[in-house]
Amino acid sequence: MPWIYLLIAGVLEIVWAYTMKQSHGFSRLMPSVITIVAMVASFGLLAVAMRTIPLGTAYTIWTGIGAVGAFLVGIAFLGEPVNATRIIAAILIVSGLILMKLSST
């Protein structure tokens, strides 16, 4: 279960990053509320996952899911640029996540 909590926490990180962008500096109510709720839930699930998953592993995977997810959401929904350097960077992050998962006990 801790890995499922960590995965959900990472997805919620993507949600709060996207809705924070949509809040326009917390000047729009609904995106701001969603951001805060998703942040609290994401941190809460990360904390629960860290009961059994080592700090370095949990935090790296959580931030990696958020980083790559936000990158993909930015491309898909916000029209952010796609170029070789950004794609290579995302691939390297995913590779690191896989190695971190494989190295955990």
Structure summarized in a few sentences:
It is found in: Cell membrane. This protein is mostly helical and 105 residues long. It has helices at residues 2-22, 29-49, 55-78, 84-103.
Describe, in plain words, how this protein is organized in 3D:
- This protein has helices spanning 2-22, 29-49, 55-78, 84-103.
- The protein is flat, with a radius of gyration of 15 Å.
- With 105 residues, the chain is mainly alpha-helical.
- It has 4 helices and no strands.
- The protein is 82% helix and 0% strand.
- The chain has one domain (2-103).
- Helix 1 (2-22) packs antiparallel against helix 2 (29-49), helix 1 (2-22) runs parallel beside helix 3 (55-78) and helix 3 (55-78) packs antiparallel against helix 4 (84-103).
- InterPro entries: EmrE-like, Small_drug/metabolite_transptr, Small_multidrug_res.
- One of its GO terms (molecular function) is transmembrane transporter activity.
- It comes from Pseudidiomarina sp. PP-1MA.
Poorly predicted ranges (pLDDT <50, ≥5 residues)? none
What's the number of domains?
1
Helical residue percent?
over 70%
Tally of separate helices: 4
String of helices and strands: HHHH
Radius of gyration over all CA atoms, rounded: 15 Å
Which structural class matches the secondary elements?
mainly alpha
Strand content: under 5%
How would a crystallographer describe the biggest sheet? none
**Number of E-state strands:** 0
Beginning-to-end CA distance, first to last residue: 14 Å
Shape: flat
Whole-number mean pLDDT: 94
Keywords: Cell membrane, Membrane, Transmembrane, Transmembrane helix, Transport
Family: Belongs to the drug/metabolite transporter (DMT) superfamily. Small multidrug resistance (SMR) (TC 2.A.7.1) family. Gdx/SugE subfamily.
Pfam families: Multi_Drug_Res
Subcellular location: Cell membrane
